[in-house]
Amino acid sequence: MAVVQQTARPEGRSSSSFWTVARRDSLAGFLFIAPQLIGITLFVLIPLCLVFWYSLHEWNVLANTFTYTGLANYQMLLEDTSLPSVLGATAIFSAGLVIFNLSLALLLAVLLNQKLAGITIFRTLFFSPVVVSLVAWTIVWGFLLQKNGGINGVLLVFGIDGPNWLREPVTAMISVIVVQVFKNVGLNMILFLAALQGVPNELYEAARIDGAPRFKQFRRITLPLISPTILLTSIITIVGSLQVFAQIAVLTQGGPGLTTTVLVYYLYQQAFQFHFFGYGSTLSIMLFVIVAVLTFAQWQMRKRIVFYES
Amino acid sequence: MNYYKTLKSAVAAIAVAVPLGISPVGSGIANAQDAVNLRMTIWSANEAHLKLFSDIATGFKKDHPNVTVTYESLPFDTYTTALTTQIAGGNAPDMAWIFETAAYDFVNSGALYPLTDTLKATKGYNAEELSTTAAERWTKDGKLFAYPFSTSPFAMFVNNDLIKASGAKTPAEMIAANQWTWDNAIATASTVGKTGKGGLIVRDFNYQIWQNLASVWNGWGASPWSADGKTCTMTEKPMVDALTFIHNAVFKNKAMPGPGESVDFFAGNAAMTITQISRASLLPKDKPFAWDLVPLPKGPAGNYALIGQAGVGVMQSGKNAKTAAEFVAYMTNPENSAKLSQFFPSARKSLLNAEVLKKTNPLLSQEQIDKVVISGIATGKVIPGHTGFAQIQQVVRSGLDAVWRPDANIPAALQQICGQIGPLLKR
User: Fold this and answer.
1) A34 contacts in B (CB within 8 Å)?
2) According to the model, what pLDDT value does residue A7 have?
3) Which of A68, B183, B231, B324 supports an S-S bond with B314, CB 3.0-4.6 Å?
4) ipTM
5) Which InterPro entries match (chain A) (predicted)?
């Protein structure tokens, strides 16, 4: 390798002994990743450390005081009577979102994995909400879901007196989940579609020859072979579900009661509305730990649920 | 060779560009050594308002050529959150508008620069004529920490066309017959509601901003907490009665839009709305309807009025707090207060007369000004507020969700709310 490097160097060019080709290549590599590295350091790593630091303080923004309180904010986590409801709402939202989103995405992907004329139009239609502005999407749904809104207007045509979607505890949570699923299901659908198209056709042919029915083909061939994509989409969807904010802020503001107050919205309230930046930071740390643990657990489970890994 | 040259050039370009990219450019304001740039956050983006503020800033510059004042409009709904985020980020404005509900937080925290000395030292300011009641919420230990530049009474706008079409009595007729009570007002709203139009709307309430319901429950003598702010009084009879009345109006009489229903009075779709008089500007010009403005109806506890306020304060943390206080003194002197009162009713006694108010509120009649504006400002209570109001507001909002159901147990829901906000009130 050293001989190759010597021969590759242009003749007559002076070069310091320090700047070997390997070092130059390393420097070039670092410079190429520098923008991303700087971005992550400035906007992820440093804020993360600062949030932990803030969580050990009582920060009164208006009085401009910043007092070290040790683990008092963590103690407050244990004593916060609203937190169990908030964590419950977060769990219900995440579970509902993941199950509904992945099931619908897979169903749509299977239905759209056909070689039919005009199928791309349907694929585009189902994907289009992904590129729509989240807030605009949510505001429109907010109008549709009002008591005297569009959805109840349609139901009334069929003689059904629709519920007050965003004001009843159960329907409010369902509404928020459905709005979020319809917004992002297209993304998972595309990922599943790509995975489905990567499954070799010969396997289905062999199964058909062996007389396997379609559902069995799906269960024994399709699911195992797209399992890496299922893992990927489930991680992305769970992490995304724990970060939901705009939909709650626009549609329900966490109500009725605390039924749709998920952790991120609660954190926002504590820090930016109630000015408890220290406690808000503590909630952020808790959210970070939850996301990290869930992601790690899912990653560990891949050996059981993922059929193969490249 | 070319590869490394390109790489070096790229790195050099980044080295130059990054510091430029993060430098504080963009304001366009000269940074001469003696120049003072003041920034005021406001929640209005109304062109006419901004023009008036700009004229006031220009007037101040005549005597203070080195001072430039800029206004930053923040969204109304998230104004206080945006303001405190700026403060937390070390980018506090020099001056800020403050909602009456957040007044206690700002005044008690020490975030504001005391204005009393500056106002008194300003020639011709005549600070004494500012109504003591209006200044109460903005004062601590005898010092004024924010000037209440807007003191706007709540009143009832009426769509007489809708009411007459429904066959009900108009509020003006009821006032003339001394029958303008909450029972009769709701009866009228209910009659209109049965025609398919909206009855009575408490504007901006939307089953979220519950403090606006003070425009109704004050008629029962109800209050969410005691005068000293330490004890929850939502379980007391006046509040239970008032909320039961509102509940019946919503769910039994269909006189008020229910949760999740949106009806716009100013689009001509409802009989009456309670809001501040400054909303007269929303009355339609293209398809006008016969409208009226009347005082709030009489409740079981008698006649009453409610006012909303906005204050302007100087941030203590600003580098130029003294100059900012001088600007606030200029902005709110008698001459500029008269100009401001066309949009923001003043609490200065000299401006609280029909002659001045008629000039600045051309849409209102002499009678409306007398009965609604002058009487409202003179006798009105300010909308509820408290230290830590944002949290209390959220807890009460969440608790009141149990009231806004057809089968609500109102006393039990209020009991629960008091249990939750009790410790917050004592802090």
Assistant:
1) 14
2) 46
3) B324
4) 0.80
5) ABC_transporter_permease, MetI-like, MetI-like_sf
pTM here?
0.83
CATH among 3.40.190.10, 3.30.450.20, 3.40.50.12280, 3.20.20.30 for B36-152+308-381: 3.40.190.10
Type of residue found at A81: T
List the Cα angle A98/A100/A101 in 5-degree steps.
Answer: 65
Cis peptide before A256 (omega within 30 of 0): yes
Check if B36-152+308-381 and B153-222+235-306 are the same fold.
Answer: yes
- Residue of B394, B405, B407 to mutate, interface with A, max A Cβ within 10 Å: B394
Which CATH number fits the domain A81-305, given the four candidates 1.10.10.10, 3.30.40.10, 3.30.200.20, 1.10.3720.10?
Answer: 1.10.3720.10
Q: Using the predicted structure, report yes or no on whether residue A178 has a pLDDT greater than 50.
A: yes
Read off the pLDDT of each residue in B374-383 and give the average, rounded to a whole number.
Answer: 86
B306 and B276 Cβ atoms separated by less than 8 Å: no
Å between B317 CA and nearest CA of chain A: 8
Q: Which residues of A touch B398 (CB under 8 A)?
A: 254-258, 261
pLDDT on residue B130: 87
User: Is A254 in Cβ contact with B398 (below 8 Å)?
Assistant: yes
The answer, yes or no, to whether residue B31 has pLDDT greater than 80, is no
The pair phi, psi for residue B274, each rounded to 5°, is -100, 120
Q: Look at phi and psi of residue B268 and say left if phi exceeds 0, alpha if psi is from -120 to 50, else beta.
A: left
Banded pLDDT at B19 (limits 50, 70, 90): very low
Query: Cβ B87–A61 below 8 Å, yes or no?
Result: yes
Confidence class of residue B16 from pLDDT cuts 50, 70 and 90? Answer: very low
Q: Which of 3.40.190.10, 3.40.50.300, 2.60.120.260, 3.40.50.80 would CATH assign to domain B153-222+235-306? A: 3.40.190.10
CA angle A261, A266, A270 (to 5 degrees): 150
Which pLDDT score is estimated for B365?
Answer: 81
Give the Cβ contact number of residue A40 at 10 Å.
Answer: 12
Among the partner residues A146, A275, A277, nearest to B261 by beta-carbon distance = A146
CB within 8 Å: A255 and B401: yes
Tens of pLDDT, residue by residue over A283-293, are 999 999 999 99
Q: At what angle do helices B321-331 and B47-63 cross, to 10 degrees?
A: 120
Question: Which residue in B88, B258, B394 is closest to A273 by CB distance?
Answer: B394
pLDDT at residue B21 is higher than 50: no
Pick from A24, A62, A257: CB nearest B398? A257
List, for residues B94-125, the tens digit of each pLDDT value: 999 999 999 999 999 999 999 999 999 999 99
Q: What pLDDT, on the 0 to 100 scale, is given for residue B101? A: 93
Paired sense of beta strands B36-42 and B67-73, if any: parallel
List the single best residue of A60, A62, A167 to mutate versus B (max B Cβ within 10 A). A62
Q: Are B316 and B341 in contact (CB under 8 A)?
A: no
For A289, counting Cβ atoms within 10 Å of its Cβ (0-12 exposed, 13-18 middle, 19+ buried), the class is exposed
Task: Give the minimum alpha-carbon distance from B205 to chain A in angstroms, rounded to a whole number.
Answer: 14
| Interchain CB contact of A277 with B (< 8 Å) | yes
Under an 8 A CB cutoff, do B260 and A148 touch? yes
Task: Report the pLDDT value the prediction gives residue B28, as an integer from 0 to 100.
Answer: 41
